[in-house]
Amino acid sequence: MLLVSMGSVTAKAVATEKFFQHPASFPTPPGLLPKKTTTMKRFHVHLKVTDLARSIDFYQTLFAAPPTVTKADYAKWQLDDPKVNFAISTAKTAAGIEHLGIQVDSPEELHEVYGRMVTARGEVYKEGHTTCCYARSEKAWISDPQGVEWEAFHTYGGSTVYGEGARSEQNTCCG
């Protein structure tokens, strides 16, 4: 017999070979159950800037990494720590936050986030397949109660142009 002391409580346990071979057969105490894990989507931030070169220099120093995409009017960092897709582009309007978003890794995850957008009770604009920010993506948009636009998107390829489609004709392929 084995005495096990746990603070002010002492319990007796029979030390058998079976006990040590099958610890998973014992119930897990409440509060120690493993939490359901879901894949973390990538947070997306797109800023409009007035001086692209100066901004690239600033952010590559801040992130300790060069941009993963650099164009004459655009730069993007695909960071893993923190897990963020951070993009900047030249401002055709006022500088500042262009939009925020959630980037996903699959069409199934996009469907999941789209469902949450619908549940959030805002007006959802399902853009579908499009070219924006030098990438081919499927996306949907919603504005939060403050009017900040949020994008949910799945990128599946690159592009040689900044944008195509109805939104890009209005110079707003993102947002």
Describe the structure.
This protein is of the alpha+beta class and 175 residues long. It has one domain (42-169): 2,3-Dihydroxybiphenyl 1,2-Dioxygenase, domain 1 (Roll), CATH 3.10.180.10. The chain is 19% helix and 42% strand. Strands 4-5-6-3-7-10-9-8-11 form a nine-stranded mixed β-sheet. A hairpin with a 2-residue loop joins strand 8 (125-132) and strand 9 (135-143). The longest helix is centred in the middle third of the chain and has 13 residues, at 107-119. It starts with a strand and ends in a 6-residue tail after the last helix.
Report the mean per-residue pLDDT as an integer.
76
Task: Determine the structural class based on helices, strands and strand pairing.
Answer: alpha+beta
Fourth CATH level, the homologous superfamily:
2,3-Dihydroxybiphenyl 1,2-Dioxygenase, domain 1
| Rg | 24 Å
Q: Give the SSE string.
A: EEHEHEEEEHEEEEH
CATH class descriptor: Alpha Beta
- Beta content comes to 35-45%
Spatial arrangement of strands, main beta sheet: 4-5-6-3-7-10-9-8-11
List unreliable stretches of 5+ residues: 1-37
Oligomerization state: single chain
Q: Any idea what the shape is?
A: globular
Straight-line distance between termini: 69 Å
Features:
single chain; 175 residues; alpha+beta; 9-stranded mixed beta sheet; 4 helices
Topology record:
Blueprint: E1 2-6, E2 9-13, H1 17-21, E3 42-49, H2 52-63, E4 69-71, E5 74-80, E6 83-90, E7 96-104, H3 107-119, E8 125-132, E9 135-143, E10 149-158, E11 163-164, H4 166-169
Parallel strand pairs: 3-6, 7-10
Antiparallel strand pairs: 1-2, 3-7, 4-5, 5-6, 8-9, 8-11, 9-10
